[in-house]
Design a protein that fits this description.
mainly alpha, 3 helices, single chain, elongated
Amino acid sequence: MHVSQRASLAPGRVTFKATAALADRLTEYIVREHSYDVPEVLVTPVIGGHQKYLEWVRDETQQE
């Protein structure tokens, strides 16, 4: 996307999936890289869910 095109786009919503251990690091990255002065970043704790999916998120976000 060209920079001049970006200014004309309507705001959208993006969902990142990560573990609680990575939440602060991900938030810092989003705030640093986002074009807004105050981007909306919300961290929502997961209290349950499909176990295999939760394991997939954990496995995919493990730091090497």
